[in-house]
Specification:
This protein is of the alpha+beta class. The protein is built from seven helices and nine strands, in the order αββββαββαααβαββα. It starts with 7 loop residues before the first helix and ends with a helix.
Length: 289
């Protein structure tokens, strides 16, 4: 079953029976009217989001697994300058009781959800306020994004932004760029470091490499075109070592590792070195002005 079709509104509706002893703040959640949801279905309570966003100009992106003739058009969007932090997720939790550790249903987050937090609303003493929030599920990340008036990036958007080096929009052919990314994979426990300690890339975005893995909206559809592996006609080319057959750049080991990691995930997984950041489409930004 694909999870990407579930809206944040549906998720909150499914959670509505949990944690009844609401505070005054929680008892009157704001209801948004969202296109495509008749009657304004309830979404997570809106929270103030303080992450600076950087514009990423649209262009063409060639996925590493698609071959040189499979360029994807990317529309201009805005991306958070750094991953969502413990401090920012704490604000979300304080206003959205169903996503607290003792309240969330296991279908939406496994037993590692917010591991290391002191209690439902307070990160533990070993978690820096400005370090990326980790041990959060795809469902929780998606709910946070909705509460902030944003969304999770698609795989294509994330990879497009992440292929930028310090001085160019596409540094994938630069040996030093890939060497830098691979060197991070050898370092343990970087997830506990504060955000924005590294130089920003060409778009002014920090920490796409070197800090945490990050959720994407369509992580489960990267290598699948049907509901299961059996629905894919060229299934034998999509997995394990055979995935390299159609690769546009056989030297892009870092991308291979990212796609392999995404292929191993389920939406309720909570992993200690995985966080997320949010994006906005160009039309979302224009509508707010």
């Amino acid at each position: 079953m694909k999870v990407t079709g579930l809206s944040a509104a549906c998720l909150l509706a499914m959670l509505s029976g949990s944690c009844n002893n609401l505070t005054e703040l929680d008892s009157a959640p704001r209801v948004w009217s969202v296109a495509g949801h008749a009657g304004g279905e309830p979404l997570p309570v809106q929270v103030a989001d303080t992450v600076k966003m950087m514009e990423v100009k649209g262009g063409k992106y060639v996925p590493f697994y698609g071959g040189k003739d499979s360029a994807v058009a990317i529309k201009t969007f805005e991306m958070d300058a750094h991953p969502v932090t413990n401090r920012q997720f704490q604000t979300f939790i304080q206003h959205n009781r169903p996503w607290r550790r003792s309240c969330v249903k296991r279908i939406f987050a496994d037993g590692n959800y917010l591991a290391g937090w002191e209690n439902d609303t307070t990160p533990g003493p070993n978690l820096l306020p400005d370090a990326p929030v980790t041990n959060v599920s795809w469902f929780a990340a998606k709910a946070y994004a909705a509460a902030a008036g944003k969304r999770l990036p698609t795989v294509a958007e994330w990879e497009y932004a992440a292929m930028a080096g310090t001085n160019s929009a596409d540094a994938r052919t630069q040996p030093a760029f890939n060497a830098h990314i691979l060197s991070w994979y050898e370092k343990p426990n970087t997830a506990g470091n504060a955000v924005q300690q590294s130089r920003p890339n060409y778009w002014g975005i920090h920490d796409l490499h070197g800090l945490v893995w990050e959720w994407t909206e369509d992580f489960s559809e990267v290598m699948l075109s049907g509901e299961s592996r059996r629905d894919v006609s060229n299934d034998d080319l999509m997995f394990c070592g055979s995935g390299s057959v159609g690769a546009s750049d056989l030297m892009n080991y870092a991308a291979f590792m990212r796609f392999a990691f995404r292929g191993s995930l389920k939406a309720n997984y909570c992993i200690r070195n995985q966080g997320f950041r949010c994006v906005k489409s160009e039309n979302q930004t224009k509508n707010e002005k």
